[in-house]
């Protein structure tokens, strides 16, 4: 699965770079840039490049590899922040609230057992 995501993101980045290249060639080689046709072709190429680059950027953001300049990172663990960490099952999925309540109830020690 990782190789497929890597290939998909690489193809999207190459497509975005290609569209940006087409827009740059259009801007450089056109005689008069501020015509309706040239601006339309440039705008379409830039929008297509944006559409192709969104997927890799969202993947990097989800993986935590994309540093966002105005987002504050919480450096405290969740236990120090007053939140309990999520209870996960064997596959890493969060458990439902009723199961979480059963687990916390089973984990409590009665005074008779001590």
Describe this structure in words.
The protein has 114 residues and is mostly helical. The chain has 2 domains: 62 residues; 33 residues, no CATH class. Helix content is 59%, strand content 0%. It is built from 3 helices and no strands.
Question: What can be said about this structure in brief?
Answer:
The protein has 114 residues and is mostly helical. 59% of the residues lie in helices and 0% in strands.
- Count all strands and give the number: 0
> Biggest sheet, open or closed, and with what strands and sense?
none
Radius of gyration, Cα only, in angstroms? Answer: 25 Å
Distance between the termini: 49 Å
Strand content bin: under 5%
The helix-strand sequence is HHH
Count of the separate structural domains: 2
Structural class of the secondary structure composition?
Answer: mainly alpha
Spans where pLDDT lies below 50 across 5 or more residues: none
Fraction of residues in helices? 55-70%
